[in-house]
Design brief:
The complex is a heterodimer of chains A (291) and B (289). Chain A is mostly helical and 291 residues long. Chain A has a single domain, classed as MetI-like (MetI-like fold). Chain A has 14 helices and no strands. In chain A, helix 3 packs antiparallel against helix 10. Chain B folds into two domains: 54 residues, no CATH class; 176 residues, MetI-like (MetI-like fold). Chain B is built from 13 helices and no strands. Chain B is globular, with a radius of gyration of 24 Å. In chain B, 41% of the residues are buried. Classes of the chains: A mainly alpha (291), B mainly alpha (289). At the A-B interface, helix 1, helix 3, helix 4, helix 5 and helix 6 of A face helix 1, helix 3, helix 4, helix 5 and helix 9 of B.
Chain lengths: 291, 289
């Protein structure tokens, strides 16, 4: 019995604030519930889903914007994070201090960091353009340009690459050193040691980082709300920002619920795809031990 | 996990490669720090010097009074206090509820417990956007719009989505490493489960508990979406809302805005430094990485 007593806060929270709202959200997504004109709510079947996917161009637009951002940002994080982890794994002193520095962006997140980046991306002359100017490169309009606003958000996200690097680093530090020694004896150069030993063994880390980063990037909100409000000309209208507007600016609660479930379906499909494909490219240590 | 004759650790590298790696890693750290340095530098500048190039990293006439002025332009300390009013109960509540749940999953037996743990793990994947609308309607029904309850109660019930689920998982894994004999000895002495949790398990788990507390604190301190939805009265704004409000009305006063932002970042950075020390000390204690 006492097990349930210890679990009760979590269980109450799960039923009351996760499972219950999920079911309510599913039900709402089949209605035209509007918080302002809530009185005559009717059951509309799959209308919300149909109109979101076929009639509302902003849904597809926001999905395109979000996907563009997520693909660039996740790929860069995977690659740069791995490179950084390789550097940190070289075994020099002073790692502790560097670890602190690379973790800082994860702590310094939210509105204060968004305001800092908004200042950095001021065209005349924020830090970004001042730095470009230092190398004789003409600056761009960053978050005020439809072309550069997404790359600006990607740079912002790359600032927090330390988190991914430390997941890789934990795995790199678990690689037996004698594997490298044996390979060196066999005459393998640094590059082939990387592709034959490090890369396969680090694939579980790539899997974790890929899933965490993808889920995280698809849900970008605060930075977008503070820095660009979806502009210019909707060029940074990320999906969750659009969902927020439908729910809390237009009070279309039913429609916003449907948008939430569409996002869930996308993330679930992506996660399943990554997991299903993982036997093809993720090296599991257990498989080697069984030999 | 015992694999004899295997040496783990940093990759064996030559001295030259090690030096080059150290230099590159140092350069990367400098790149990470530059935006923060610029923030600090800007916060001491006169408004007219903010965008002057070449950049003046150390202002020739530093204006520490920016800080005092920034806290006057918006009711900064009011917002700071409001943030604390939210974050302190969130942190305590999150630690208590996730620790209790993790203890049940690590140590106790009951039908269905394994399945419930799978449910916890499943909630890690759940995007919060699904429950956004119904939660709002629920709190609206309860008359909680405009109060701090919607920001505090979910964390106290370990319903913080990703964070809460990860915390339960982390704590459970940590509890599993504590030898059961310690529990059994306490049980023989007549301690109940709660007493064992408080007197045996938690004292050996400070690194994990500290980390969970730090997560909860930093996340709640930086949270923007929930306060944005639920706080309607300006006098009740938390700091993130206050800073955003500052930007909306004084959007050209960058030096003052940065001063306010620097002040807002001090508590999470302090918590992070303390938690990091606690964490590494715990690693030394338990011999675990």
């Amino acid at each position: 019995m006492s097990a349930y007593a210890f679990l009760s806060p979590w269980a109450i929270g799960f039923v009351g604030l996760t499972l219950g709202p999920m079911l309510a959200s599913l039900a709402l997504s089949f209605t035209d519930y509007n918080l302002v004109q809530g009185a005559d709510t009717t059951w509309v079947g799959v209308d919300n889903y149909r109109s979101a996917l076929t009639e509302d161009p902003l849904v597809w637009h926001s999905l395109r914007v979000t996907t563009y951002y997520a693909v660039l940002s996740v790929l860069l994080e995977l690659v740069v994070g791995l490179l950084l982890a390789l550097l940190l794994n070289a075994g020099f002193r002073g790692i502790g201090a560097l670890r602190t520095v690379y973790y800082l962006p994860a702590v310094v997140s939210g509105v204060a960091a968004s305001l800092l980046w908004l200042l950095i991306f001021q065209p005349r002359d924020g830090l970004a353009n001042a730095a470009l100017g230092f190398f004789g490169i003409d600056g761009v309009e960053w978050v005020y340009s439809t072309e550069w606003v997404i790359p600006a958000f990607v740079l912002m996200s790359l600032w927090g690459v330390g988190r991914a690097a430390f997941i890789y680093l934990a795995i790199l530090q678990g690689i037996p050193t004698n594997l490298y020694e044996a390979a060196a004896v066999d005459g393998a150069g640094p590059l082939s040691r990387f592709t034959a030993i490090t890369l396969p063994l680090v694939t579980p880390g790539i899997l974790i980082n890929l899933i965490l980063a993808t889920i995280g990037r698809f849900q970008i909100f605060t930075e977008a709300f503070v820095v660009s409000q979806g502009g210019p000309a909707n060029a940074s209208l990320f999906y969750v920002l659009y969902l927020y507007r439908n729910a809390f600016r237009y009070f279309r609660m039913g429609y916003a619920s449907a948008l939430g479930w569409i996002l869930f379906a996308i993330l679930l499909a992506l996660t399943l795809l990554v997991f299903r494909s993982s036997p093809l490219w993720v090296h599991y240590e257990g498989a080697r031990e069984r030999e | 996990m015992s694999r004899p004759q295997v040496v783990l650790g940093p990759r064996p590298t030559g001295r030259r490669a090690r030096k080059a790696s150290a230099l590159l890693a140092l350069a990367g750290a400098a790149i990470v720090l530059v935006p923060l340095m610029w923030m600090l530098s800007t916060s001491f500048k006169a408004e007219s010097d903010v965008f002057r190039t070449p950049i003046e990293w150390i202002p020739s006439e530093p204006r520490p009074e920016n800080y005092a002025e920034a806290t006057q332009l918006i009711p900064f300390w009011r917002y700071f206090l409001n943030s604390l009013i939210v974050v302190v109960p969130v942190t305590i509540g999150a630690v208590v509820s996730t620790t209790a749940a993790a203890y049940a999953f690590a140590r106790l037996r009951a039908p269905g417990l394994k399945w419930l743990f799978v449910v916890v793990l499943a909630t890690i994947m759940l995007p919060g956007e699904i429950t956004l609308v119904p939660s709002f309607l629920l709190f609206n029904q309860l008359g909680w719009i405009g109060t701090y309850f919607p920001l505090i109660v979910p964390a106290q019930l370990a319903a913080g989505g990703f964070d809460a689920a990860v915390s339960i998982f982390l704590l459970r894994q940590f509890f599993l490493t504590i030898p059961r004999e310690h529990d059994d000895a306490a049980r023989v002495d007549g301690h109940g489960f709660l007493s064992i949790l408080v007197h045996v398990v938690i004292p050996q788990s400070w690194p994990a508990v500290g980390l969970v507390a730090a997560f909860a604190f930093v996340h709640s301190w930086n949270d923007f979406l929930q306060p944005l939805l639920y706080l309607t009265d300006q006098s009740r704004y938390t700091l993130p809302l206050g800073l955003n409000f500052f930007k909306d009305i004084y959007n050209t006063q960058w030096a003052h805005l940065m001063a306010a932002s620097v002040l807002a970042l001090i508590p999470p950075v302090l918590v992070f430094f303390f938690a990091q020390r606690a964490f590494s000390r715990g690693v030394v204690f338990t011999g675990r990485r």
